[in-house]
Amino acid sequence: MPEPMGFYTDTTVCIGCKACEVACKEWNQLPAANGGVNTLSGDSYDNTRRLDGMHWRHVKFIEQFPEDRKDGRWLLMSDVCKHCVNAACLEVCPTGAIIRTEFDTVVIQSNTCNGCRDCIAACPFGVIDINPVSNTAQKCTLCYDRLQGGLEPACSKACPTRSIQFGTIRELQGRAQKRVEQLHEMGENRAYLYGADDKMLGGLNSFYLLVDKPEVYNLPPDPKLPTRNLVPGSIFAVLGAIVVGLAGIFNFRNRGAGPATSLGAGGEARP
Amino acid sequence: MTGAPSSTWFSAAPHWGWLIVLYFFVGGLAGGSYFLAALIDLFGRRDDRPLAHVGYYIAFPCIALGGALLALDLTRPLRFWHMMIESNTYRPMFKIWSPMSAGVVALLMFGFFTFLSFLAALAEDGRIAWPGLRALRPPGLLGTVVAALGGSAGFYVAGYTGVLLAVTNRPIWSDTPLLGMLFVVSAASTSAALIMLIAHRAGLKTPALADLHRMDDWMLVLELLVVMAVVISLGSVARAWLNVWGVLLLIAIALGVIVPLVLSWRGRQRRQPWSVVTVTSLVLLGGFLLRLVIVFSSDAV
Q: For chain A, how many structural domains are there in total?
């Protein structure tokens, strides 16, 4: 059994080249959006806009400049499926299309998915969407086919600055922790790891080194599993059913006027 | 995204649209109508049996339509059976912690019971020449078991959709645990309204009609309280309704709950018969709009 594998993305060395996006699209044969006609979003250099069924990698461009533009910085981040240890998508999938692989990654089997879209609503990171070619839910597979062949994923292989690093989770966690310490020593005290430990959904097998609040990167500060609402939601629904049921019994048994007539076997009235 | 009131703001919309809104509505009608019919059957009098028939006549077509709507909403509709049978192993597919998976099983069971009761009602009305089918209606043991199990399954079908929405990470839906309760109560009020409307159009006069009307009033009051509880439980997330969807929600509550209650109350005060068609139509419209707002307002975030 292989060790859990994943990505560690050091956003401080990302240069926004989008080589990861291209490599992902090419290896996974993902179609171009809008028939290949490029449309500009007007949001910095980000024309991919978001992760979806056709974009399994998305480089985010966050411009932080004050009004006078004397000081400022770019935050760049290559986003991808987090391959959560406790995966919301896998939890709710009603067809069994979403599986956990021997590498501890999360993969959607396209030949099983029927497009109910429950996983899309369940993912706290907004990673999954329908691929309009296959008409099934799709997302990063962490290049499951390449991993099975002993290769590293296409995006990390293509990354020219080693912003995206691939390896065993244990090794990546150690590497990331050293990098945080290094940045702190250099005076960048805002650096921290997002999702590296097991506090967030049991751990993210694709975790990040960030230098601002998660919300700034469009990441949820406190992602949760959808089943947190299962028990309380069910209890309240049952409570509602009990109230309705009692109201019904009370109303239909307590009509007041007229002699009570109950039904005997066979539907015959009996006095 | 800074300033989001909840971590649910970072998830993506599943684009559950009109088909799902319609399914939530007819599923609620099916579950509620069957439940009310079973109650009338189990606790009512002989004179009330025709009114129970109306509930059974609503439940089966509605749940059949609901199943079709669900399958059509899939982006791969021909794979609908993957929710019932694991396509790789051909074993039954069931995940009790996934409301969608458990809901499919409940739909199948409920569909079975509604079919039995539908046939029994047809037989009792003399539309099917198979008197043996009457045994599927109470008060016999078999009929009582069918009504009790079908009624329970009906409640599940009426309420699981709200729980399903809560078991996501979408704004509004997963920010309150009360949607299941709201859908159950709304299913009861809309179903009572539909049974009354059809009974009125068919010229049925049974003693239980007045009970059904009184119960519908109670359900409308309860629905109003649950909607208020939902808004309170949402806290700062409720600001997602500070737009056209919030206005539509207010319209839904005003038209579907408050106006019918006022009309009903005034009818009693003045001892004048309330307009059945107006009141019941408004309740049905309100129930539909309620589901519409809940489904679409989350997508609008």
A: 2
